[in-house]
Amino acid sequence: MNLILRLLLNALAVFILAHILNGVAVDGYIGAIIVAIVLAILNLLVKPILVILTIPVTIVTLGLFLLVINALIILLASNLLDGFSVSGFWTALLFSVLLSILQSILQSFLKDGKK
């Protein structure tokens, strides 16, 4: 149940950011849910491989290269899905940072609800 709720909150975050940012578009609520599921799968399968392959660069940049990896995951999801588009790398980077912040805020409401 917690996984479904987290996916729905992530879909809400994607939907909100798609309406705020100019270079990001998503096709409705169902499209946002599909984007959240695809991002979760890509973060589970592809991201660890990219992190391991880029350890030297990540160390040299003091971890800032992980933002680039997140943007690449967003661009990959944009290429895989028809109902989700991101205009470029910098938009994907901004979307990634704002998505992380918004996910943290929304999931903090989950923690408050449990107490």
Automatic annotation (TrEMBL):
Keywords of the record, alphabetical order, are: Membrane, Transmembrane, Transmembrane helix
Annotated protein name in UniProt: Phage holin family protein
Q: Which domain of life is it from?
A: Bacteria
Which stretches are transmembrane? Answer: 28-46, 53-77, 89-110
Keyword Transport appears in the UniProt entry? no
InterPro entries, sorted: Phage_holin_4_2
